[in-house]
Amino acid sequence: MTPLSRSPRLRPALLTLTLALALAATGCGTEPAPDAEAAGLRSSDAPAPDRAELEARAAAVQTVTEHVWVTEAPGYALARQSVGVLGDDGFGSVYTEPKGGQIRLSVERLPHADADCTDGPASGSDREPLVTCERDGEQWYRATESGHAYAQQQGDTVVTVGGDRAEVDRATLRSAARAAHRADDYELDQVLPPAGEASGQQPVERGDLPPEGDGAPNNEVGASG
Fold first, then answer.
1. pLDDT (tens digit, 9 = 90+) per residue, 2-30?
2. Cα–Cα distance measured from residue 88 to residue 22, given in angstroms and rounded to the nearest whole number
3. Nearest to 21 by CA among 93, 69, 114
């Protein structure tokens, strides 16, 4: 490992290390997946789920089936409440273990520069600077003082597996990153919320937000009644 002599600006992919975002706010970790899911989310004995239904369930949480990835790590299980959309049609989930550790997985449409932490300009420079940025196999490993992540480019998306350094060691994170893969139909059936249960994840429309500009609330007289 070669620490950077001058820390480059942090990529949005690493910003998913703060994916305590709405995911943590929804209470992830309070409902771990059943044992079958923790063992890989596969159930070959079950009948193949209907593909059209799976696509509809993905659309209900504002993503697409191609963006739903899963992973596994010893002692970690998927927190079902953490499953949700990132950005326009990305995907995010959190895997937890009994002592409170979290591994966060995200799939987002991002440019290649956000997988390769040494290449090109980046946004999010107000975050923690990188102290490590290096190639590790087919992925890039980057770390700040408090968090670390593995990232890989997959088509027009970047898949990131990250966690807090105090909770998840690099070996465990590497194992989870290498195990990450696009969910098959059986895994989609286990990961996606059942039909009719995703309505609570729809964004709340606010009547005081202007249709253009920076989206700040309308504070004119009468806007709040």
1. 444 333 333 433 333 334 333 443 344 44
2. 15
3. 93
